[in-house]
Design a protein that fits this description.
It is built from three helices and three strands; from the N terminus they run ααββαβ. It has helices at 2-25, 35-48, 75-86, and strands at 57-62, 65-72, 93-100. The longest helix is centred in the first third of the chain and has 24 residues, at 2-25. The relative contact order is 0.14.
């Protein structure tokens, strides 16, 4: 009987520890956006852009911070890409290292 009570107490204590970890971050399981998801969405935005899809644009994502490298054909394309990327859920900042390539 004592063993069953002890096991029950340990289970309740263990479950409360695991649920507390999610509360500490302020995010639920479904709200967490990881860097791989952001990376995929940023690359999709680049590919879908009518002017940037054929250009070499590098993307890195670290803790929600996106860095863009490479070349674009105009400042209009550059500004449009940055605007689209800032709207992606989970993106905290966008570091623009793009260079405008003169034709």
């Amino acid at each position: 009987m004592k063993k069953a009570i002890l096991m029950t107490v340990l289970m309740v204590f263990g479950l409360s520890l695991f649920s507390g970890c999610a509360m500490m971050t302020g995010e639920t399981t479904g709200e967490h956006i990881d860097d791989a998801t952001i990376y995929t969405q940023v690359n999709a935005a680049v590919v879908k852009d009518p002017d940037a899809h054929y250009l070499k644009v590098g993307v890195t994502v670290t803790n929600g911070e996106v860095a863009l490298t490479g070349f674009v054909n105009s400042t209009t394309t550059e500004n449009r890409l940055i605007s689209k990327i800032r709207q992606i859920k989970g993106v905290k900042t966008v570091k623009n290292l793009l260079k405008v390539q003169k034709e």
